[in-house]
Specification:
Helix content is 68%, strand content 0%. It contains 5 helices and no strands. The protein is globular, with a radius of gyration of 15 Å.
Length: 79
């Protein structure tokens, strides 16, 4: 996927939610990523890094994703 497509997809995800907590998580992740020296990534073993990359690739298949509503329902009794 090209950079412009990735940015557009990222913007679309943010635009789809009105949940301030989710938007704060996006913001926090981006800030950490942009301000990080990569030490977290480098602290992972090669197997852990590959696991993260594999999970990212799997996330591109919408059929395998869990919706926020499904997660909230599943863990409703934990709050």
């Amino acid at each position: 996927m090209k950079l412009a497509e990735l940015k557009s997809e990222f913007h679309n995800l943010i635009d789809k939610t009105n949940d301030p907590e989710i938007i704060e998580q996006f913001l926090g992740a981006m800030n950490q990523s942009l301000n990080s020296d990569g030490s977290v990534w480098r602290s992972l073993s090669p197997a852990q890094q590959q696991s993260v990359l594999d999970a990212y690739e799997e996330s591109k298949d919408d059929d395998g994703l869990t919706t926020l509503e499904e997660l909230k329902a599943k863990y409703a009794n934990w709050s």
